Amino acid sequence: MRLVSIKQARPGMKVGRTIFTEDxxxxxxxxxxxxxxxxxxxxxxxxxxxxxxxxxxxxIVVEDVxxxxxxxxxxxxxVKTVKQITNSNKLARKVSLNEMGLLFQQACNSILxxxxxxxxxxxxxxxxxxxSPSLYHHSVNVAVLAAAVGMSLGYSRSQLMELSIGxxxxxxxxxxxxxxxxxKQERWNEExxxxxxxxxxxxxxxxxxxxxxxxxxxxxxxQHHERxxxxxxxxxxxxKNIHEYAQIVGICDVYDSLxxxxxxxxxxxxxxxxxxLFGAGGHLFEHHLIKAFSKHIAVFPIGSxxxxxxxxxxxxxxxxxxxxxxxxxxxxxDGRGNDVRVPYELDLKSQINLFxxxxxxxxxxxxxxxVQPSAN
Length: 376
Hints:
376 residues
């Protein structure tokens, strides 16, 4: 299979990987043949890309480190909690004290079990994105990324649970923001941003009252926008005053946000998001946490179409985690843009004169450079 932008999707193509709705239900299953109507529906749903089946890449399998049913369980836990909150008049007290923590413990246990059973996939977490911009899937993505970092740091099972539950609930306070703010399709202005910043404290006040959710998980919600140099919010904490869990979730939150589409911009390329994070090392986030995070990110995801310096175009078919910038590429087009009769593979680790200059489908990505965070 290979990844294409929704603008490249054509009637007759077959879906290569399940597409989910924002609340975790299956929208289109593997093997469904696209029609013009289905493509238009995906576009309206905010889906900017999808995997399609292709006989030239049929053996390239893009696996998720967590099973679809695990993702669905996690998303449903968030959806159920959101509904409980929004349907409540006394927000913090009306949420089920017995059920809320249990829901997320079950969801995060399943996530951790799946991840520990797929150690190889942990080395390049490039396929967790559902290509859906929803809050629910973002929360699950951040939980998976955070758990991977925790594993690489040698966290115990109980620490991983605290971290992943905090990660999954890091944005739960947004549910209590004005609906018109959350539904806005343009960037927030300064006044709206100040209102939005309240989500950290709102979420913390909700979670700290839940007897079966760790206070450390609640502090992830409170502190995930704090930064080492004191430039974050809501308390302007510095250095070691920010819990490590919150720093990890902050890194994962930034990465997943940058590499996901927004109504006002396209997604950024993985390497641009990683470069931004490394630029933030030492003043926004701890260096060692960014390095631990980067071990799990393949700059060129399996299934993506890339362009070589020779002009050849191909699909990334294998990634060596020790050489994530030098994947193996299956060439489908020659340097003149013509389809090759028999696709061939180039291992960029051994072909040092070859390198990737970009993605073929630049329509999918924002080409505007990310402003490096200031060290001042």
